[in-house]
Write a structure and sequence with these properties.
D-Amino Acid Oxidase, Chain A, domain 2; 2 domains; six-stranded mixed β-sheet; 20 strands; about 30% helix; about 30% strand
Length: about 375
């Protein structure tokens, strides 16, 4: 057994903490506001295929491996927490509203087919047969049943419960820096007492770069705004699947929640640590979402929020040793924190035991950047 300090109590930090504690390690989590931040305002898409982009094949492989692990991860978490993990298995569709959007989705389908990833091309009429909530502006798109979703807030509640049952100690303190003696980690300096440790895992999201010089310039904040809607009596029912769409080249998504809720997102802006919700962001999300799902005009707007995704230079996360003995990172997951939680936790647990991480996680090792320095 080793003493592990996890800095950050978002989905990645708590997933790693739960797995490590369940394996018998003494785990302390440092975070002044557990289960908040970007994890609290996430859309919850588990969508490696529909998020795929040419040049990011390592990220696609990592995401596909993680979504494969998601059902087992959710079942284990439900058993450990005594409450639902929030996994949704209805699948995902991608809609296009115009000729240019449809051509872009055709290119995506061709790219994915060339990589051996199966997607089904459908006409607008075929998409509406699957999801009657789609409006007449939808001209075609793709069905991707293996891209799933999760209710992020149910997931965070379950992770907190599972961590508590496994003996994880939560300390409401802000980490300032990692303590080391020049070659080995000894703990974490906080805004309160120092916390000693045999190993430190940095999972502080967009704030990770402040904790150790090795991460300087490797993790940055990327702002995303979301809206939460609620179905009202008499309004058209929401879709059952996650609906992603291109509307005149602009991406928008709608992720269902239990009880008729929808999460609409997400804008993307590099504006430092600004978390204000903007009028323009709300306007653009509602305009584009209503083009795809006209019925939402009758829904209630119950929340608007912004979070800071932790971006990396190549959009692949940083999972692995950082340099000083005992220092690990699991950060830089960008828009894929929910998706990559299972494979990240498995990789971190393997590294704590001195074992190699899963094959798909090896390209995410931080030394791809650190070695260049």
């Amino acid at each position: 057994m080793i003493e592990v300090v996890v800095v950050g109590a978002g989905v990645i930090g708590m997933s790693c903490a739960w797995r490590a504690a369940a394996a018998g390690h003494a785990v302390t989590v440092l975070d002044p506001a557990p289960a908040r931040g970007a994890s609290w305002v996430a859309g919850g898409m588990l969508a490696p295929v529909t998020e795929a982009w040419p040049g990011e094949e390592h990220l696609l492989d990592l995401g596909v491996e993680s979504v494969r692990r998601w059902p087992g991860f959710a079942a284990d978490l439900t058993a450990a927490a005594g409450c639902r993990a929030g996994l949704r298995t209805e699948g995902t569709m991608v809609a296009a509203t115009g000729a240019g959007d449809r051509a872009e989705l055709d290119n995506l389908a061709t790219y994915l087919t060339g990589l051996g990833r199966s997607v089904e091309r459908l006409s607008g009429r075929e998409l509406r047969r699957l999801e009657p909530a789609l409006g007449p502006d939808v001209r075609g798109g793709l069905s991707v049943p293996d891209d799933l979703a999760v209710d992020n807030r149910l997931l965070l509640t379950a992770l907190q419960a599972a961590c508590g049952r496994a003996g994880v100690r939560f300390v409401a303190a802000a980490a300032k820096s990692v303590l080391d003696d020049g070659g080995r980690v000894t703990g974490v300096r906080t805004d309160g007492p120092d916390v000693p440790a045999d190993a430190v895992l940095i999972c502080a999201g967009a704030h990770s770069a402040d904790l150790h010089p090795t991460l300087d310039g490797l993790v940055r904040p990327v702002k995303g705004e979301i809206l939460r809607l609620a179905h009202r009596a008499g309004a058209f029912p929401p879709p059952g699947r996650t609906v992603r769409a291109l509307v005149d080249g602009r991406p928008v998504y709608a992720v269902p929640r239990d009880g008729g809720g929808l999460v609409i997102g997400a804008t993307q802006a590099e504006t430092g640590f600004d978390t204000d919700v903007t009028v323009g962001g709300v306007r653009d999300l509602l305009r584009d979402a209503e083009r795809v799902l006209p019925g939402i005009a009758e829904y209630a707007l119950v929340e608007s929020a912004a979070g800071l995704r932790p971006g990396s230079p190549d959009n692949l996360p940083l999972i692995g040793p950082l340099g000083p003995e005992g220092l690990l990172a699991a950060t830089g997951h960008g828009r894929n924190g929910m998706l990559l939680a299972p494979v990240t936790a498995d990789a971190v647990l393997a590294l704590l035991h001195g074992d190699p991480p899963p094959e798909a996680a090896r390209p995410a090792a931080p030394h791809r950047f650190v070695s260049r320095r």
